Amino acid sequence: MSFAKDTKLQIIANPLPNTESELAFMGALLHTSGEFDLAQKSVSFLTDIPALYDFTNDIITRLYGKGVGLEISDDMRINKTKYFRISLPKDFAMQMLQDFGIMSSQGEFLWHKIDDNLIADTESKKSFVKGVFIGCATSSIRLSKSTQTTSTGYNVEFVSHSHDFLLEFSLLLAEFNIVTRLVKRKKHFVLYIKESNQICDLLALVDAYDSVLKLQDELALRELRNKINRQTNCLSANITKTVNASLKQVEAIQLISDTIGLESLPMDLQEIALLRLANPEESLSELQNMTAEKLSRSALNHRLGKLLKIAKGLE
User: What is the CATH number of the domain that holds 96?
Assistant: First the structure.
């Protein structure tokens, strides 16, 4: 199950606090996933979450009575995902559109605008955000499985045909200190959040606390992996540096041996030359512990430098 879908299921697992919040939620849901045929009084919304039917049907029953209910049907498959069409009852559809802030009392269609009456208080605003998340949120977040690594970043997007609606929605999120960016992508507009801490704030806002914990665990896991990779890369670089230095020293000593002979060197340099030839893979620190005089690191490095200088002169 995707991260976004799991979050949506968490949202609808908790009832909304009051009637105003329920109206705000339904308005946001129709704004983002609704389909309308006003001539036929046909109003519906699409979802890939069948459990949303029970959640919204309970809302409609509380708002309009037990005799009023929604209808659900299989509608289509998109990229192997089954979508369900949930339809409002035709006898109440126009009234519901007004109650949900989609249509004014004069019959004006408010598709591109968020009705201020729908988000009059903090709880209603939070419920509106929940409805928008259910209706059009997607995410590129992929949680790691066991030790399997993932290269995906952190991204939550809200997709709509309406630039004006997403712009107003971005201002609503800004009231909760959630910063978004709005771009056009082909025929759609996309409002997106990429910063992981901002995504956590958004998930907390819609009461998806399990997703918050999962994302924070993922952040900690990825940071640990990155730290291990950095340490491994640093260690590999140091090993490579040590090996390359040792190879140059061995080549220089062999050149001296083949031309003027190691016996022509001062005794202190002879000792170091023979020690390096016998231990070509040892680091400078390990070689230092093998010297008879227990040379300091700088003294050992100085003598190896002399050998390199002599070899260079012979070249």
Answer: 3.10.28.10
